[in-house]
Write a structure and sequence with these properties.
Helix content: over 70%
Bound molecules: protoporphyrin IX containing FE
Structural class: mainly alpha
Strand content: under 5%
Distance between the termini: 26 Å
Shape: elongated
Largest sheet: none
Mean pLDDT: 96
Radius of gyration: 17 Å
């Protein structure tokens, strides 16, 4: 059973971090597009966040808690596991509470008089900050689970 939860864990952070990088590349590329095309790109980003990144982050935390049971029972938690857990949970909270809902709001925007609507810039800024912070926590967890093991 441990192998199964490890698989869920690895699939989860692949979807989360992979979807996060796809969001970043799509957002930067969309800057070069016209208003309608740029908003269409944000509709796709909304799907990436809702279908891949959100469920991936939830899967990471659920599988991580199950994988962590033996450590919690024994009370001896290696430093790299503690760091992975704290960073992973904080990152997943950022994804679920801010990044995915903001991407959903961006995905619903329509052009106003041929221009980007006013809310676009505010939401985009929020999305950049939330996704960067959440992604950084995800990477800290990844480094802890690999380089941090020594
Ligand atoms: C994006 C966030 C995360 C990443 C990238 C990540 C990465 C990894 C990796 C690569 C492993 C395999 C390590 C190994 O056994 O060689 C692992 C195992 C594990 N992870 Fe995470 N993890 C994340 C979040 C979490 C969270 C949030 C928790 C707990 C709430 C957690 C708990 C665990 C546990 C308990 C193991 C098994 C450790 C062992 O006994 O080998 N992880 N994780």
């Amino acid at each position: 059973m441990r192998g199964f939860w490890l698989l869920v864990h690895v699939l989860g952070f692949t979807l989360w971090l992979g979807g996060g990088i796809a969001t970043m590349v799509a957002g930067v590329t969309a800057k070069r597009l016209g208003t309608t095309e740029r908003l269409s790109a944000y509709r796709l980003i909304g799907v990436i966040q809702r279908v891949l990144v959100g469920p991936g982050a939830i899967a990471v935390v659920l599988s991580g808690i199950i994988l962590g049971q033996p450590y919690m029972r024994s009370g001896a938690m290696p430093g790299w596991v503690s760091l992975m857990m704290v960073a992973g949970i904080l990152g997943a909270l950022g994804v679920v509470a801010i990044s995915v809902p903001t991407a959903a709001k961006l995905a619903r925007l329509e052009p106003q008089g041929g221009q980007l609507p006013e809310a676009f810039h505010r939401l985009r800024k929020r999305q950049i900050i939330a996704a960067t912070v959440a992604g950084t926590f995800g990477l800290i967890a990844l480094f802890a689970a690999t380089l941090g093991r020594g």
